[in-house]
Amino acid sequence: MARRPLVMGNWKLNGSKAFTKELIEGLKAELANVNGCDVAIAPPVMYLAEAETALAGSKIVLGAQNVDVNVKGAFTGDISTEMLKDFGAKYIIIGHSERRTYHKESDEFIAKKFAALKEAGLVPVLCIGESEAENEAGKTEEVCARQIDAVINALGVEAFNGAVIAYEPIWAIGTGKSATPAQAQAVHAFIRGHIAAKSQVVADQVIIQYGGSVNDANAAELFTQPDIDGALVGGASLKAPAFAVIVKAAAAAKN
Ligand code: PGA
């Protein structure tokens, strides 16, 4: 079955009010006539209000980079699903390797975030992927399976209906060292197969993005691969022309 590609920008800890407005104006101009690809951006939550206003009337969808498992109460510094919904955010990144590393987020905790998002009717963008050492030790599939199984064990495979997985090898994030299309495709096929072992129907519809140094020069080739359904883009999402090239490449390759 045909899956509609999703290209999402992860701005990480970058931007300002002015930058948010300017980048979104640039994206709106560049992408006005592009169809056949869903597009989302995840600015820092500080700028969701500016982003929501700037995105009015555009098909670009708002997202966020993280969420807490609690909906309200004494949880200093956290942001809830309801708050994100209040700004119209839909695609919410969880389990990014930077959060797994710097904030010690476990597979089980990330599965709870996945549950909170499903409960709220939001779309989890679950980041998974192996470190360089794990890759060299031949543990890529084992790590990806473990990170996916944490969600399946807690919520069942059906939780991946309408959800997004971003395969992001940690050695490729922010390094300029993207996985090759063939390397990425092999892991994407493994991930889809792992889910298909529980439910072919769920596996056929789940969006599996590739992330890790996707840019305007390498995107088109990555999107030729059958199990690469779009991209989660960090650095190259901070420049409207580069991000637009990636979106257009996905729209062209998948339609
Ligand atoms: P990158 O980041 O495109 O800068 O490698 C991707 C990500 O971390 O989502």
From TrEMBL:
GO MF: triose-phosphate isomerase activity
Pathway it works in: Carbohydrate metabolism; erythritol degradation; Carbohydrate degradation; glycolysis; D-glyceraldehyde 3-phosphate from glycerone phosphate: step 1/1; Carbohydrate biosynthesis; gluconeogenesis
Compartments where located: Cytoplasm
InterPro entries named in the record: Aldolase_TIM (IPR013785), TIM_sf (IPR035990), TrioseP_Isoase_bac/euk (IPR022896), Triosephosphate_isomerase (IPR000652), Triosephosphate_isomerase_AS (IPR020861)
The family this protein is said to belong to: Belongs to the triosephosphate isomerase family.
Complexes and interactors: Homodimer.
Protein's name in the database: Triosephosphate isomerase
Source species of the chain: Rodentibacter mrazii
Gene it is expressed from: tpiA
